[in-house]
Write a structure and sequence with these properties.
This protein is mostly helical. The chain has a domain of about 140 residues. The chain has 6 helices and no strands. The longest helix has about 100 residues. Keywords: Coiled coil.
Length: about 210
């Protein structure tokens, strides 16, 4: 029974079974549907999930002992739903099994035994859920937190790089402005000197014989 909780849980999420177990169905295929708790008798107001219903049908079927007991009693009451009166239905089911050797004491004791089966299975299932939470939730949460810290670190690095780029762009603009100013000054002075020389050439030709 140690794997019962894991089998039913694996019908909904991957709980890390090994390869052999992965090839097994999460819920063993049933040949005949055993309605252990007919909805008309014990309605909780919540529609039964067929996967869970099949699982518990199989669980009770596997736990059934030879001879008439609570399991057969419930099957019989389920088959008598056409009898509207609950007392009559219970009495008729008990009478049908009483001739096979079932008495009230055995009916109640085996009903309690199925309660113990449920309790044991629920314990296994809860442990499986806790293990799955540790594997699928807690560990993934830690991984998500680590990635979040990496994002924060990268965001800080990006911010610093952007600040460096901004400073470099300011330096580039300033250097470009200085170079442009220097180039303009050079060109203007060069042109002035050319004109001065041209002027002097003309005057030399004119004044010096």
């Amino acid at each position: 029974m140690a794997r019962l909780g894991k089998k039913i849980l694996s019908a909904f999420i991957d709980v890390g079974e090994d390869k052999k177990e992965d090839n097994e169905p999460a819920v063993s295929p049933k040949v005949e549907r055993t309605v252990v708790a007919p909805a008309a008798q014990r309605s909780t107001g919540t529609p039964a999930d067929p996967r869970f219903a099949d699982y518990f049908d199989k669980l009770f079927s596997d736990a059934n002992i030879p001879g008439p007991d609570y399991y057969e009693f419930v099957r019989m009451t389920g088959a008598m739903l056409a009898i509207a009166d609950e007392r009559s239905r219970y009495s008729a089911a008990f009478a049908g099994l009483q001739v096979q050797g079932l008495d009230k004491e055995k009916l109640l004791s085996t009903a309690n035994e199925y309660l113990r089966v449920l309790t044991t299975d629920a314990d296994h299932f809860q442990k499986t859920v806790e293990a799955a939470l540790q594997e699928k939730v807690n560990s993934r949460s830690a991984e998500a937190e680590e990635k979040s810290r990496r994002i924060q670190a990268l965001s800080q690095e990006i911010l610093e790089l952007q600040q460096q780029i901004s400073a470099m762009q300011s330096e580039i603009a300033e250097s470009k402005e200085k170079l442009t100013a220097s180039s303009s000054g050079y060109t203007a002075e060069c042109e002035r000197r050319k004109q001065q020389i041209q002027y002097d050439i003309e005057k030399i030709k004119l004044y010096i014989q």
